[in-house]
Design brief:
Length: 466
Amino acid sequence: MSRFDAIIIGAGQAGPSLAGRLTAAGMAVALIERHLVGGTCVNTGCMPTKTLVASAYAAHLARRAADFGVVTGPVTMDMARVRARANAVVENARTSVERWLQAMPGCTVIRGHARFEAPDSVRVGDDRLSAPRIFINVGGRADVPPLPGVDSVPHLTNSSLLALDRLPAHLVIVGGSYVGLEFAQIYRRFGAQVTIVEKQSRLIAKEDDEISQTIREILEREGIAVHTSAECIALAPGSAGVAVSVSCAQGPPKVDGSDVLLAVGRRPNTDDLGLERAGVATDARGFVQVDDSLATNVPGVWAMGECNGHGAFTHTAYNDFEIMAANLLDGERRKLSARILGYGLFIDPPLGRVGLTERQARERGRPLLVGTRPMTRVNRAVEKSETQGLMKIVADAETRQILGAAILGPGGDEAIHGILDAMNARTPFTELEWAVPIHPTVSELIPTVLRDMKPTGPTSGSAPAR
Ligand SMILES: Cc1cc2nc3c(=O)[nH]c(=O)nc-3n(C[C@H](O)[C@H](O)[C@H](O)COP(=O)(O)OP(=O)(O)OC[C@H]3O[C@@H](n4cnc5c(N)ncnc54)[C@H](O)[C@@H]3O)c2cc1C
């Protein structure tokens, strides 16, 4: 039995940074990783996909070159170079985390699959390790739901699609949310035929209607076929490779594609962790249950990142580490519930989001103010010939606090931070109305939208804001 001051399971987005803080405080730490250091974000998530988004944007802009008075020849893809670029970015990031951990005094990196044996001990292969503090940072993986026929054809997930060494002729994507939509636009811009099949009545159904609708228009304008309300999705071998039955309210009942990507959500890596041996409680979907300080029901065991179900993003996993370190080492009392959630959808143009949607804000039953502006009325977007999208801000009519916002347009993923920062500062929006922003930017319209905020009735939010 090897004894440590702390054991961290998983070298994803929270584990390595926590190892850094704990070892700097003088603790002996074991960091256990069963696969690739850096976890999902570095290896099969954010980094490779955003690198591909950049290649896809370059291809798209090259095809549109004539719109800007630029003369090019025919645009073709060199997929080997696209992949080599993505691999280089990923390998560089992974290697730098590995080097950092190897050089970290007091940190022992252990390769292998960890399983709890007791509340204070885990097994990795033949080795047993114990510590008074155990931190779970095991992340998640693509969910493969039991769709009819799912075992009758090969199917792709985010990980296997990234490893594919050919361009699918026709990629059928089951799932019209963040992961599915980003891959849809990437592969369409690379030259594949792409069809999205979504069982909800609209894409990215968590967002307000006009955001979903505008995103659908953006994708359809690029030639991506979209089937929504696909209530009965089933897979079977097809003439081109795979046939996806959609049984939807609109469009043909079956899509024949060369490949199918399942992008229907994520499940936590907690089913093979031996949690029952430690008595750590999970919810019905397998997420480790934590309180506001990330503590599980078992004293001395905490859970950070995607596996606790409080955020499926790199920045939420990293913020879990920050909360953990601040409370354990800095004498603070940081809480999960104080986090204001922001996130991006990295299609082009990107969607930046923070806080509540209008629909969620309405459920609070308090009077609201809502302001919107289409990108056709944003000079920067007009100058870039990228006028698809809109911005929208929702605020409490009485307290004048911003409750949420969406910026879908050029630089929307960056511009949203002006609002995210104001929300974190708990500043009433009236403080921002007279800010003097830089021209010409997308952000410069934020004070204008705030000045034009209007009270809205219960039906507002479903009407297109254009
Ligand atoms: C295609 C895609 C694109 C994404 N894009 C974005 C984006 O643009 N922005 C964003 O914020 N988020 C994005 N995400 C989400 C983001 O990648 C994850 O939310 C984030 O990586 C979660 O971090 P984590 O530390 O919780 O877990 P992970 O990064 O998944 O790390 C968990 C680690 O634990 C290891 N592990 C699991 N079980 C064990 C065990 N029993 N023993 C030892 N080790 C174990 C795993 O091998 C893994 O390395 C994307 C995800 C996907 C799939």
